[in-house]
Amino acid sequence: MDPSRASDPSRGKGFGWRLRLGMLLPSSNPVAEPEITRILPSGVSLNTTRLKLAGSTREDLLGMTEGVEAAVGLLSDAGIDRLLFNCTAVSTFDPEMGEALRLRMEAVAGRPAISTADGIVAAIRALGARRVMMISPYIAPVVEREVAFLRHCGVEVVHASGMGLKEGRAMSSVEPGEWYRQAMDQAGSGADLCFLSCTAIRVFGIIADLERDLGMPVMTSNQAMIWWCLREAGVRDPLPSLGRLAA
């Protein structure tokens, strides 16, 4: 036998031989899977299931949480190592929501879990940020709840905006250049972190340009979530396309 094949850590383990992730995602989000999958380190795989969310009302957002246990059960059938609940608006709905979702997922799967809110808080702390400008596609009530969540976590929000969009496909249709322009418009806000909030917006490709032109770190929902999940799992490969946070 070829010694190099005998020592190959992926031999016989298939996809995700290093880490197999299972993500719960809003049903109307067409962005998170391709955006995240493209930057995963070697040996890390992503498996996804969806929960119904096609609006932004209070009832829509809370309704997404009703199927968590069933969705986790489906992902567990694939031999998942870690679970991710990836929706910013739901996981930051109130200060307790992220932890509640995490505990529910872990109770079903017996595996570690995180929410987008966990990644956001961890990323802010890792970057040492104190004053955040938040740019999002959301309607006003969602923006207000997320600002309240960030303030509860000890973060000063110096600017918060939303585009009034209500569902994932509309959010995903906004061109990356529009997010760049909105962020640059707030260059003098006094922030020390630019947060592009929402897992359904296409922004991975502008992180490096914004960090250079704003002169500050840039955080996005998908970036913070996958960075924190990988770090918690002990996968510390540099992810240079994700900016200062993951360098």
Automatic annotation (TrEMBL):
<dbReference type="InterPro" id="IPR053714">
    <property type="entry name" value="Iso_Racemase_Enz_sf"/>
</dbReference>
<dbReference type="InterPro" id="IPR026286">
    <property type="entry name" value="MaiA/AMDase"/>
</dbReference>
<dbReference type="Pfam" id="PF17645">
    <property type="entry name" value="Amdase"/>
</dbReference>
<protein>
    <submittedName>
        <fullName>Arylmalonate decarboxylase</fullName>
    </submittedName>
</protein>
